[in-house]
Amino acid sequence: MKHKTSIVTGSYGAIGKAIAEGLAAKNYRVVLIGRDQARLKEAAEDVVNKTGNDKIEFSAVDLCRKSEVEAFAKNWDGPLHLLINNAATTPRSREETPEGIEMQFATNVLGYFWMIKYMHSYMEGQDDSRIVNVASYWAGGLDLKDVETREGFYDNDDVYRKCKQADRMLSVAFAERLREKNITVLGCHPGDARSKLSTSLGHGGWESPAKGADTPVWCATAPELKGETGKYYEHRAEVECRFAADKQAVEKLFAICERY
Ligand SMILES: NC(=O)c1ccc[n+]([C@@H]2O[C@H](COP(=O)([O-])OP(=O)(O)OC[C@H]3O[C@@H](n4cnc5c(N)ncnc54)[C@H](OP(=O)(O)O)[C@@H]3O)[C@@H](O)[C@H]2O)c1
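Above: query sequence and NAP SMILES. Below: predicted holo structure tokens.
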């Protein structure tokens, strides 16, 4: 197979790295994205050593900053077959980006939104291009009147759940918009792996990173999921997404994200 090109965000994290390894083992060219150049380099070298696939590249992008995502997209050369949005952060107290956006909403929601917005044009016109948004079953409570937790109390786990709900809603919103361009957009729960993120939420995690990567890689590559746009999966099984039904809320969230 000629190498298909993929992007994995948060790719030196626990699950992101395992996703990158899974795709490399399936002969994809993988571009790792994260914000720390040294850790990206180390992760890329490790993926090459583990899989024998030398088509592994990396690029430092701070996904909470629209200008960095836009610049990355502008410099992108060639087609893109697969985008896996996986990066996330869960600071214990409320933080803001240099642009003054609450950090979890900026990274975990707008980071996904901007990557799709600015990269999808490279995915058009192909036989089977896919976007996989790594979300979670641990999701809910989103308040569309206060997406940046400016008024409500900031609890990192509550805000994380809101962001993961938003990721699932954005999967549906983009699926509708990109259907005609033949781009399949899927949401999924990965697995419960011990990571910086899960530890910061106090969840621990009992599955291996490889197990955590299993469903995202399956969503990205399983032939039977071609064209199944807008669906949400947990442990390789389709689950009806309770956030997808409220189309008005989905469109409202999309409009909010567009304003940033
Ligand atoms: N672990 C679980 O049990 C679990 C369960 C359900 C869903 N998930 C989902 O799985 C995904 C991966 O989580 P994980 O458990 O593997 O967490 P992780 O190990 O903490 O990985 C998250 C990655 O995102 C990166 N990141 C954070 N902010 C960024 C930014 N502004 N720009 C670029 N990269 C950034 C982190 O880099 P830094 O180290 O530099 O911050 C890290 O590499 C997340 O979307 C999470 O919601 C995880």
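The domain at 5-258 is CATH 3.40.50.720 (Rossmann fold).
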